[in-house]
Design a protein that fits this description.
InterPro entries: NAD(P)-bd_dom_sf (IPR036291), ODC_Mu_crystall (IPR003462), ODC_N (IPR023401). This protein has 334 residues and is α/β, with parallel strands linked by helices. It has helices spanning 11-17, 21-36, 111-129, 144-157, 169-183, 193-197, 265-269, 282-286, 308-325, and strands at residues 5-9, 40-48, 56-65, 70-79, 90-97, 104-109, 136-140, 161-165, 188-189, 202-205, 226-229, 246-249, 280-281, 300-303, 329-332. The chain has 2 domains: 5-113 and 309-332, ornithine cyclodeaminase, domain 1, CATH 3.30.1780; 114-306, NAD(P)-binding Rossmann-like Domain (Rossmann fold, 3-Layer(aba) Sandwich). The protein contains 9 helices and 15 strands. Strands 9-8-7-10-11-14-12-13 form an 8-stranded parallel beta sheet. A 7-stranded mixed beta sheet has the order 2-3-4-5-6-1-15. A hairpin with a 7-residue loop joins strand 2 and strand 3 (56-65). Helix 2 crosses helix 3. It is globular.
């Protein structure tokens, strides 16, 4: 058998790559474009719950992006109490394969990828679905993906006001301080959900609830706002979709009936959000097959579950940049 070599990028390598905001957004948008044009395969994620969902679980995401020449599998743990051990709540690894032979091509520390691609999906949703003059951001949650939500959204919109909230004061205050330092502008940590969300032009809900609880009230949502709920456990009221002119998802296959978890799980299971009344998948909008926001009066919701193709797209971008910079190690598989 001929030797099979693969590239290994550890966390230090990924950090040394220092992908710019524009590089992150371009990679994920390229993946969405491929999806919209039917050049991807996305298998619904599967879950492994070792003990109870209150402690945490593993997500396994699988996909293929034809223009990038990779199939990929990412395994990501999501454990809410990891902060007590000095660990990120989400730890991940991405495996990339040659889709022609099945040979391993790369193993990449995907903890950063998970955070970046989630933020990029939120920001790209806003790029196509939020009002261009959106000035106020309200963000619930301070976990790893939250940083990239706010950073990449602000990169596109340069907000006048950013509000953040999370359950623990030390978490939300530290989050606001980090963002203020990195973005070079004030970020306000609010004491409650309502003061964070009410009147915001863009609302992101990335909470960490142990079970579905309607914490985000529909009445707080400003007309013409853009709303992104994506907590594993739903934090929204059933009435939220009633005020929406459009509901967009990243991939209907991961949102349909019969699957666990997700912000709109009950809405789907009770028939309030269906394949028939769904406006579009974001990839269709990016590829120009369906319209995004069509007026400043529309109130729009974007529900993203997390796409394997976004992990693969960022992994592809990292491998290309690593090759240019001489980062990473080549290892022998067989």
């Amino acid at each position: 058998m001929d030797p099979i070599d693969f590239t290994f990028l550890n966390r230090a390598d990924v950090e040394a790559l220092a992908l710019t905001d524009d590089e992150i957004l371009a990679a994920v948008e390229a993946g969405l474009h491929a999806q919209g044009n039917g050049q991807t395969v996305i298998e619904p994620r599967v879950h492994l719950v070792p003990e109870s969902s209150a402690k945490g679980h593993f997500n396994v995401l699988r996909g293929y992006v034809k223009p990038m020449g990779f199939a990929g599998v990412k395994v990501v743990g999501d454990f809410v109490d990891n902060y007590k051990r000095g660990l990120p709540s989400e730890l991940a690894i991405l495996n990339l394969f040659d889709p022609e032979t099945g040979a391993l091509r790369a193993i990449i520390d995907a903890t950063g990828i998970t955070e970046m691609r989630t933020g990029a999906m939120t920001a790209l949703g806003a790029k196509h679905l939020a009002r261009k003059n959106s000035r106020v951001l309200g963000h619930i949650g301070a976990r790893g993906t939250a940083y990239w939500n706010v950073r990449l959204l602000d990169h596109l919109f340069d907000f006048d006001e950013i509000r953040v909230h999370s359950r623990r004061p030390e978490s939300r205050n530290g989050f606001a301080e980090r963002l203020s330092r990195d973005l070079g502008k004030p970020v306000v940590a609010t004491d409650d959900w309502e003061s964070c969300v009410r009147g915001a032009d863009i609302v992101v809900e990335a909470s960490r609830l142990p079970e579905p609880t309607p914490m985000l009230r529909t009445e707080w949502i400003k007309p013409a706002a853009f709303v992104v709920p994506y907590g594993t456990m739903s934090a929204v009221e059933l009435s939220l979709t009633d005020i929406m002119d459009k509901v967009v998802v990243d991939d209907w296959g991961q949102c349909r009936k019969g699957l666990p978890y997700g912000a709109l799980r009950r809405h789907v299971d009770e028939g309030k959000v269906t394949e028939e009344n769904l406006h579009a998948e974001l990839g269709q909008i990016v590829a120009g097959l369906k319209p995004g926001r069509e007026s400043d009066e529309e109130t729009i919701l974007f529900w993203h579950r997390g796409l394997s193709l976004s992990d693969i797209a960022l992994g592809h971008a990292m491998l290309e940049k690593a090759a240019r910079l001489g980062l990473g190690r080549m290892l022998n598989f067989a």
